[in-house]
Design brief:
Elements lengths: L7 E4 L3 H11 L4 E7 L11 E8 L2 E7 L14 E5 L2 H12 L3 E7 L7 E5 L5 E6 L1
Parallel strand pairs: 1-4, 5-8
Antiparallel strand pairs: 2-3, 3-4, 6-7, 7-8
Length: 131
């Protein structure tokens, strides 16, 4: 029987930096566990073999791949965030867009009175929606 389904993010050396950023931006967030590569690899010493963290109460897992890949994150798979206030969506939009790429700027698109879609500085795609 399945006990959970968690998003899993694969980075190439920035997993811990990304986790620290996300838990600083979202309330009810924390890093729960990190296992790191040691001096015998295969990843660079200190990088993340596996980690689990919580963003706004939701579990996410991640790792640093010890090898480069010809692919990265894609907006076709995104994390969808429902915000309770205009102030919160504006704060999150600004924080996540800083150093990233705005795909749809914060605006009224008809299906939502305030919505934004962006890729953060780590390449992770976020959709922000005002409830």
């Amino acid at each position: 029987m399945v006990s959970s389904v968690d998003p899993f993010l694969m980075f190439e050396g920035s997993a811990e930096t990304a986790m620290s950023f996300y838990v600083s931006v979202f309330p009810d967030s924390r890093i729960e566990a990190i296992t790191r590569y040691g001096p015998d690899g295969p990843g660079a010493e200190g990088t993340v073999i596996h980690a689990k963290f919580v963003v706004a109460g939701r579990a996410i897992q991640c790792s640093d791949s010890p090898m480069p890949h010809p692919f990265s994150f894609t907006p076709s798979m995104s994390l969808f965030v429902t915000c309770e206030s205009a102030e919160e969506i504006e704060r999150l939009s600004a924080a996540l867009a800083n150093g990233g790429e705005v795909l749809m700027p914060l605006d009224d698109y008809g299906f939502s009175r305030k919505f934004a879609w962006l890729n953060d500085k780590f390449g992770v795609s976020w959709q922000l929606n005002l409830a």
